[in-house]
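Listing S7. Sequence submitted for prediction.
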Amino acid sequence: MGTTVADVMTTRVIAVRRNADFKQIAHVLRDSRVSACPVINDLGQVVGIVSEADLLYKTADAELPAGLIRLRWKLGEESKITAITAAQLMTSPAVVIEPDAPVQFAARVMRDRRVKRLPVVNAGGELIGVVSRADVLGVYDRPDADILAEVTRVIEEEFGLSMAYFQATVSSGVVTLSGLVAQQETALELAARIRHIEGVVAVRDRLTCGTPID
């Protein structure tokens, strides 16, 4: 079984309540040396994320729009400039993930949503941890020998092929695979499957198609 979010997440989580004020939030972010943290309700459920960028609205010199739009903007109680609590400042809903999700899925979510970390929640939406980009990248520390062993297992057990027709090497997570397969479709599926082995950085596909000769 592959590594899940639960295996790599941090369980000592820094969070703030919805009613935390601006100074409290700034203090938490500064002292914890994080750029963002979850916002939770009284039940411990994640309701949003508040970041340094949200706080910077206070100190930045915003260029105000003109006319009625300007007036409406100035009167908006929920605007970032006038916000004073986490509930007003936060981005909601938060992008969260569950602990049994594969780390590869967490990586895709961070990439697609352009976030550096994800709150980890249980089935009830309660905060139980945080997973960061650094946590996810830790899977690439997997030893080459372990990756090679799994490549062999995939070829023999999942695809029912003999290693007698293949040569596989792994160097710094890069798999070089050469050998003979009967059909091009099988070669493509095999290379794709190996790319998804935990710790694999890339696959150099040197497979050829033909009929194996015993």
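Caption to Listing S7: primary sequence and predicted structure tokens for the chain studied. Residues 65 and 71 are 8 Å apart (CA to CA). Residues 5-139 form a domain with the CBS-domain fold (CATH 3.10.580.10).
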